[in-house]
Design goal:
66 residues; alpha+beta; 3-stranded mixed β-sheet; elongated; rRNA-binding; metal ion binding
Length: 66
């Protein structure tokens, strides 16, 4: 097998814009994120679900059918 083929795989600290930090493994020396699981709306439960309705619902609403 060839020597020095694979890059080094080290423990690195990940920094998020919200201030959260955690440790993971990567080939990079440092990782900076804009959004993480601590501040993402989907994971924090603050995401709003919007009912858009389908094509049939839009038709019924437009023409007043039940």
């Amino acid at each position: 097998m060839k020597k020095n083929l694979h890059p080094e795989y080290n423990e690195v600290e990940v920094h998020c814009a919200c201030g959260n930090t955690f440790t993971t493994k990567s080939t990079k020396k440092e990782i900076r994120l804009d959004i993480c699981s601590e501040c993402h709306p989907f994971f924090t439960g603050t995401q709003k679900q919007i009912e858009r309705g389908g094509r049939a619902d839009k038709f019924k609403q437009k023409y007043g059918l039940k």
